[in-house]
UniProtKB/TrEMBL annotation:
Record Pfam families: MarR_2
Signal peptide start-end: none
Bilayer-spanning residue ranges: none
Taxonomic lineage from the root: Bacteria, Pseudomonadati, Pseudomonadota, Betaproteobacteria, Burkholderiales
InterPro entries in UniProt: HTH_MarR-typ, WH-like_DNA-bd_sf, WH_DNA-bd_sf
Highest taxon listed in the record's lineage: Bacteria
Domain HTH marR-type: 50-100
Coiled-coil ranges (or none): none
Designated name of the protein: MarR family transcriptional regulator
SUPFAM superfamilies: Winged helix' DNA-binding domain
GO molecular function, one term: DNA-binding transcription factor activity
Amino acid sequence: MTKRKLNSPAIDDAVYLGRAVERLSILIEEQSQSVFDAMGIIIPVRSCSLMTVLAALGEASAADLARELGHSHQLVIQKLPKLVRLGLVQDRSDDDDARRRVFIPTDEGLAQLKKFEQCTSLIRDAYTQLFAEVGDVRQLVDRTIDALNERPLEKRIDNKK
C-alpha cells in the first residue's frame, strides 16, 4: 500500500478496490509497453487478447470478438479502428449482411502476433517471479470475479436502514 498524503481523502480504503485494481492494470500496461517497445511489438498492450482471438478465428465481426473475449461490443468496437490504422487488421463488409463489418488480421498483424508469442514466455516468467513475491494475483482476481458473479455486491450489503 502506498503512503497517504497529508490531508488527502482515504482513497486507499477497501471501498475503492476498483481504483486499486485499475492502478495495477495501468502499471502493468505501462511496464508491458516498455517490453513491447524493446521487442518491436506495435500491438497495443490492451489489444493482444483481441488480436490472438481474431487470428485464431481467421475473421470475425465485432460481436463475435466480444462474445469470445467476454467483453462488451462497445469495448471491442473502440479498439478495432486503432488496429486498422496500425495495419494489423483490415475490415470489409460481410458477404451476407452489408451492414455488418468483418475483421481479418493482416500479414503484418500475424507477424506482430508471432513477435508477441515469442515475448509471452518472458512475460510469463516475470509474472512467476512476481507471484513468488506477492502470491498468485491472477488466481486471486479470477476467484474474486467468480465470487462476485456468484454473489454480487448488492447481495453482500446489508440493506437494513
